[in-house]
């Protein structure tokens, strides 16, 4: 009586495939299909990104003010600039944060807003 992994007496090409080997073969085929799909997706993404037009040039905001004045003890945590305003986020010694908006040419403070974290 032939074993499952050996050919039977009816011919050299008559193999019986164990169920575990059939399952393994199917799992490898699914893994290969997934890998091919992933590589094609990454390649398509790269091609699309390379062929995109570059973003338009942004206008650089120039700040003409020589200096801005902050209250004593406040530390700058972030700065942002637009053509119309210079925005500075500060934190005081107690940990309170404020958003201060300054005029870009004169350096005068235009507004002050408290930031409340929840």
What does this structure look like?
The chain is an alpha+beta fold and 118 residues long. It has two domains: 1-52; 59-118, no CATH class. 28% of the residues lie in helices and 22% in strands. The chain is built from one helix and four strands. The protein has one helix spanning 19-51; strands at residues 75-81, 86-91, 97-102, 109-115. It has a four-stranded antiparallel beta sheet with strand order 1-2-3-4, with no helix packed on it. The protein is elongated and about 100 Å long. The model has no long low-confidence stretch (mean pLDDT 86). Pfam families: DUF6476.
**Element-level helix/strand string:** HEEEE
Low-confidence stretches: none
Question: What is the helix fraction of residues, given as a range?
Answer: 25-40%
Give the N-terminus to C-terminus distance in angstroms: 77 Å
Shape, principal axes of CA atoms: elongated
Largest β sheet strand count, sense and barrel closure: 4 strands, antiparallel
Fraction of residues in β-strands: 15-25%
The overall average pLDDT, rounded, is 86
Derived from helix and strand composition plus strand pairing, the structural class reads alpha+beta
- Describe the strand arrangement of the main beta sheet, using strand numbers: 1-2-3-4
Radius of gyration computed on alpha carbons: 34 Å
Count of individual beta strands = 4
- Count of alpha/pi helices: 1
The tally of structural domains comes to 2
